Amino acid sequence: MELLNVYALYPIEPVRGRGSYVYTADGQEYLDLYGGHAVISIGHAHPHYVERISQQVGQLGFYSNSVENSLQQQLADRLGALSGYDDYRLFLCNSGAEANENALKIASFQTGREKVLAISRAFHGRTSGAVAATDNPKIVAPFNRTEKVEFAPLNDLEAVRERLATRQFAALIIEGIQGVAGIHLPSDEFLQGVRTLCTETGTQLILDEIQSGYGRSGRFFAHQYSGIRPDLITMAKGMGNGFPIGGVLVAPHFETWTGMLGTTFGGNHLACAAAIAVLDVMREEQLIENAARVGEYLIEELKKIPQLKEVRGRGLMIGMEIEGSASELRKKLLFEEHIFTGGAGATTVRLLPALSVSQEQAEQFVQALKKLL
Ligand SMILES: Cc1ncc(COP(=O)(O)O)c(C=O)c1O
Questions:
Q1: Does the residue 303 lie in any domain?
Q2: Quick check: is 25 in a domain?
Q3: pLDDT digit string (tens) for 16-38?
């Protein structure tokens, strides 16, 4: 049987990983500044993570959401403490798209409204609701196309004001930092203005922190730089360090009922063990602080390189605008310098390393980049 051919692949197969490095079968080492698409938060094969998952799978890997599972509460307690959202409630699912899908539903149930306002160039995932709120017609099938979703430009508060004034929108959904679009930040003033407009018009504010959350920006969630508190926060990627898990943080004012949402695999024992291990390591090794420190160093050093047209980002979510083809530069970094990076559009290179990446590894990248440029 052939695989469905939907991904553009590099002819490289990492078979082993440790910290910020991955290795092919012949032993070649690669510095991973892509983190498997912003997923690797605490580093590859972290010993505590390996031990916690191994122990759990040997004990009980899965049981359904029809019985009590105290691991879910352990995860919620740790997440509440580290994120500063202890008064919110946690719904567990399996991926980023599913988290957004559920957040959109919760907002619509609560308000009784049908419409959603999203932001130009947004990416929220590939399931029906999430892809409808994604500003990329190429991945929206006719089945998913809907006039219920409208888009407003990033950082254009007047455009948001005009739409929300109709009081037809259940939710406004926005990324903490736009990732797939090429690392674009909502300004603090924009987020604060959006928060006020949502409150005034009864619109639920959904912060998609799937890529920008879990410490990546140097704060637990990127929106925390602006001081706002959204109504719903979605997360996934770094949450399980590679084990599939997603979640929605739900503010206290939402009415919920038994049977309102559900999933077979969401919050299963293994996923919880992985996510608990991630939060243990983030706290013990102060990885959010490391992301802020190494990220600041990296952004400063990159800004000194005259060949880069622009450097954007916060913490370890960094976009570099280059002259010429980003994919050519990424190939050279990979095949000549053995460094994985991410892409976004024709001219942006994205850096999304593990939050444990060291200053020396960041320096290694800066030197390699200077050599190639
Ligand atoms: C901001 C954002 N939202 C949602 C998603 C979708 O997540 P998943 O691929 O886990 O469904 C992504 C994935 O890249 C993302 O970057």
A1: no
A2: no
A3: 999 999 999 999 999 999 999 99
Among 83, 35, 73, which residue's Cα sits nearest to residue 249?
83
154, part of any domain: yes
What is the Å distance from ligand 1's center to 123 Cα? Answer: 7
Whose alpha carbon is nearest atom 13 of ligand 1? 125
Q: Total structural domains in the chain? A: 1
CATH code of 195's domain: 3.40.640.10
pLDDT digits (tens, 9 = 90+) for 236-252: 999 999 999 999 999 99
Q: What residues flank ligand 1, with Cβ below 6 Å? A: 95-97, 100, 123-125, 175, 179-180, 208, 210-211, 236
pLDDT of residue 126: 98
End-to-end CA distance of the chain: 43
The DSSP annotation for 22-49 comes to: EEETT--EEEESSHHHHT-SS-BT-HHH
Beta-sheet pairing, 246-250 with 204-208: unpaired
Print the domain residue range for 182: 48-284
CA 215 to ligand 1 center in whole angstroms: 16
Query: How far apart are the CA of 307 and the centre of ligand 1, in A?
Result: 30
SS3 147: coil
Element (H, E) at 14: strand 14-18
Q: Is residue 87 part of a domain?
A: yes
